[in-house]
């Protein structure tokens, strides 16, 4: 190999790659208009898929089709009707629902609710089927009928009945009688993206009508159907409000940093095309947006701008050093295109590793971001430099001076490497300790900020009327048995009594409660008759008589399986953590195994149980993706640079920020939910970009320019330091917008991402320079090195 100092590129192990980059850069500048037109047309064609993008508003989409909790919930709904429920609360300002005015309002609302689209059943305090015995007959009638029984004595009798009825108290009326509820069950035909909003909007219109008729009665609502709709509404609200805010912030930050209107315009065009093209491609693939992945445009924008800034800053610096615009663009492409290929490639690998998550919205989020990273690479390496080549951009010596200042700072940190290493080590030891304080906890209601009406209504209803979590147990009657047998009902009653004694339990309702109440009624309301009948014949007769007395639509099909082989027991729990809820279900199953026949075993089902398991499901896949991502990025860098040491050097600056961010989270918050758990994977693919640019420029300064380790550090940071600061500012501004989301999954993701990215920038600027020197100082200086000092003016 030639040793002449006039051909330094030939000594670069990657000289052929660099030569290819130079030829590509020259072709790009020469064919700039063709590139601009072609990329715009391709992006427009890809963005046609935007009209195919749909929002998922079904909480079941958070689970894989073979998830055992989802299957259990589906089996429950298939057996006891596919219900999407809403609970409407009436709160009179005078503090009691037992007045003619309040009861009339609830009765009117109950009647009108039957007319809502897709309604299957309506249960309320007023239409509760109260059983009374007349001679040998059982008479079942609504507890309250408008126009009758409005005397003070009649109202007092209704109050006494309601507040002594276990099936009503803590379900459809509060223990103090200040709040009453109306439970509405919907059966939504496909597609739910259409039928769900239709049902919710009709319900809200009816609630507005009730408020207008009775201004002194507050009307609020919660329930599964409103939860699903809240996911949809908050996702769309974030897309409509946060994306414009993010654009405005990023433009301001970029203009302050670059002081170049043309540079900002080029970046704006690039990120806009990237977002539309990437989301359009996602639409063609049929991937649905969810409340998690709705932040995709925000994240892709920050990634696109971060990539653009490296090219723009390099161009402005070269022009500030005296190069022409076309020469500066060519140099920027030649120097940065290979690095961007590795950086965006590792971004895509990192995002695609999120597909290992067992939570489908998280996996789809990774697919969207992975596709977006590829689109960003293509546009940053083609459309952006072509725009810079035609726009009247000007150079700035200011950036040269600032870059050299950062280079000198990096060189000074080399001399202070021991204190830096000790300080970083101590900080990370503290962070590692605080990380252990994080607990995996999720509550799907708490995903929403108190600023959201659904959250406020839900909090009020749960604190005044019903509990927070509902768990269902479909208790089978055993082989050959029926739910009408006395033995089954007695065992079911023992189970319900044990549940009521548990500290987490707010309310329990079972088929045994119905049978005991009817049996007491048939025996003159004697207190001793409030029990399960002694023999199968009597028990079956009590149940049959009651069922035959019920009006259409208010039967027991929501409690008894149609073949009478099982009944549904409902447990309402207080506000507990997801971990505690899983532990409660495990304790319940242990009691059932020890105290009930083998044929009566059942496990808990319902959305509360499903979301309690989702954290564990997500963390397992996320950890696998994180480890795989770390290994892949380090291996790729090591192979491309043909240096194990530099591959290792790229590892620490990108692992430590996540550790420190999770340590801070453990110190001040401690609750790790669905979105926070994926931040490590999400941000690793982003923060590694600045590290790659610095490491690659350091490697080039060593191999091509032949600089000593310290001089190479100064040279690398004089070139990439300002870009690192600018990209960090843009990333923090972009992710910081998520903090303003009313959907806490996105808000928490924004907080953690900002922490991780800001810490990563500090680590890149403080730890990486002395780390590069420390691992490379014993490497011999290239014998044919043409330079020994940093190059100025680049």
Automatic annotation (TrEMBL):
Its main location: membrane. It is a multi-pass membrane protein. It is found in: Cell membrane. Keywords: Cell membrane, Membrane, Transmembrane, Transmembrane helix. InterPro entries: MMPL_dom, Mycobact_MmpL, SSD. GO terms for cellular component: plasma membrane. The chain crosses the membrane at residues 33-50, 239-258, 265-287, 299-316, 337-359, 365-393, 414-435, 623-641, 648-668, 674-696, 717-743, 749-775. The keyword Transferase does not apply. It comes from the Bacteria. Residues 266-390 form the SSD domain. This is MMPL family transporter. It comes from Cupriavidus campinensis. The lineage of its organism: Bacteria, Pseudomonadati, Pseudomonadota, Betaproteobacteria, Burkholderiales.
């Amino acid at each position: 190999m030639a040793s002449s100092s006039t051909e330094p590129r030939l000594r670069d192990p990657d000289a052929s790659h660099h030569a290819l980059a130079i030829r590509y850069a020259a072709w790009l500048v020469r064919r700039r208009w063709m590139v601009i037109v072609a990329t715009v047309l391709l992006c427009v064609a890809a963005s046609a898929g935007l009209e195919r993008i749909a929002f998922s508003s079904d909480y079941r989409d958070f689970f894989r089709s073979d998830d055992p909790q989802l299957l259990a919930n589906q089996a429950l709904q298939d057996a006891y009707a596919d219900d999407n429920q809403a609970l409407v609360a009436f709160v009179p300002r005078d503090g009691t629902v037992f007045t003619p005015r309040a009861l009339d309002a609830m009765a009117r609302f109950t009647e009108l609710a039957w007319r809502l689209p897709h309604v299957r059943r309506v249960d309320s305090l007023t239409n509760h089927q109260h059983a009374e015995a007349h001679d040998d007959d059982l008479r079942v009638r609504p507890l309250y009928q408008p126009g009758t029984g409005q005397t003070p004595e009649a109202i007092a009798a209704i109050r006494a009945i309601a507040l002594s009825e276990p099936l009503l108290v803590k379900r459809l009326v509060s223990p103090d009688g200040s709040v009453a509820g109306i439970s509405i069950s919907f059966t939504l035909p496909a597609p739910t993206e259409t039928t769900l909003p239709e049902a919710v909007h009709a319900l809200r219109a009816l609630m507005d009508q009730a408020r207008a008729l009775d201004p002194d009665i507050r009307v609020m609502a919660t329930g599964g159907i409103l939860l699903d709709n809240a996911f949809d509404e908050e996702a769309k609200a974030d897309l409509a409000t946060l994306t414009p805010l993010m654009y405005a912030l990023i433009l301001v930050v970029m203009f302050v940093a670059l002081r170049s209107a043309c540079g900002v315009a080029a970046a704006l065009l690039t990120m806009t095309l990237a977002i539309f093209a990437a989301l359009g491609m996602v639409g063609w693939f049929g991937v649905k947006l969810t409340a998690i992945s709705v932040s995709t445009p925000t994240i892709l924008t920050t990634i696109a701008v971060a990539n653009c800034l490296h090219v723009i800053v390099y161009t402005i610096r070269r022009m500030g050093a005296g190069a022409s615009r076309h020469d500066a663009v060519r140099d920027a492409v030649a120097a940065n295109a290979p690095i961007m290929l590795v950086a965006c490639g590792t971004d895509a690998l990192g995002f695609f590793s999120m597909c290992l998550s067992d939570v489908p919205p998280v996996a789809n989020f990774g697919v969207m971001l992975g596709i977006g990273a590829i689109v960003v690479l293509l546009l940053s390496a083609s459309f952006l430099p072509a725009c810079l080549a035609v726009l009247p951009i000007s150079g700035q010596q200011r950036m040269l001076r600032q870059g050299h200042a950062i280079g000198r700072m990096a060189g000074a940190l080399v001399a202070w490497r021991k204190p830096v290493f000790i300080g970083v080590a101590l900080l990370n030891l503290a962070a590692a300790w605080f990380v252990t304080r994080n607990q995996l906890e999720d509550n799907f209601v708490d995903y929403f900020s108190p600023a959201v009406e659904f959250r406020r209504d839900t909090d009020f209803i749960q604190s005044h009327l019903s509990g927070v979590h509902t768990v269902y147990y479909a208790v089978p009657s055993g082989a050959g048995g029926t739910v009408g047998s006395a033995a089954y009902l007695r065992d079911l009653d023992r189970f319900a009594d044990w549940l009521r004694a548990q500290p987490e339990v707010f309310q329990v309702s079972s088929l045994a409660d119905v049978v005991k109440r009817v049996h007491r009624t048939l025996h003159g309301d004697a207190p001793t008759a409030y029990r399960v009948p002694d023999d199968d014949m009597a028990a079956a007769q009590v149940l049959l008589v009651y069922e035959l007395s019920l009006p259409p639509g208010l039967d027991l099909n929501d409690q008894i399986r149609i073949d009478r082989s099982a009944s549904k027991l409902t447990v309402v729990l207080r506000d507990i953590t997801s971990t505690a809820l899983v532990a409660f279900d495990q304790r319940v199953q242990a009691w059932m195994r020890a105290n009930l026949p083998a044929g009566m075993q059942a496990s808990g089902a319902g959305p509360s149980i499903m979301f309690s398991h989702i954290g564990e499901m997500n963390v397992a896949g996320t950890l696998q993706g994180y480890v795989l991502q770390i290994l892949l990025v380090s291996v790729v860098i090591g192979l491309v640079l043909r240096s194990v040491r530099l591959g290792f050097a790229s590892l620490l600056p990108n692992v430590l920020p996540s550790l420190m961010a999770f340590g801070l989270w453990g110190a001040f918050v401690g609750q790790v939910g669905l979105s926070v758990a994926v931040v490590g994977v999400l941000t690793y693919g982003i923060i590694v970009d600045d590290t790659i640019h610095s490491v690659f420029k350091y490697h080039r300064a060593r191999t091509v320019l032949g600089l000593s380790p310290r001089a190479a550090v100064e040279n690398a940071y004089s070139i990439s330091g300002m870009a690192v600061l600018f990209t960090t500012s843009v990333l923090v501004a972009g992710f910081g917008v998520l903090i303003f989301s009313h959907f806490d999954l996105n808000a928490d993701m924004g907080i953690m991402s900002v922490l991780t990215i800001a810490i990563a920038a500090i680590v890149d600027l403080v730890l990486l320079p002395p780390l590069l020197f420390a691992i490379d100082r014993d490497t011999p200086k290239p014998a044919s090195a043409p330079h020994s000092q940093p190059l100025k003016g680049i």
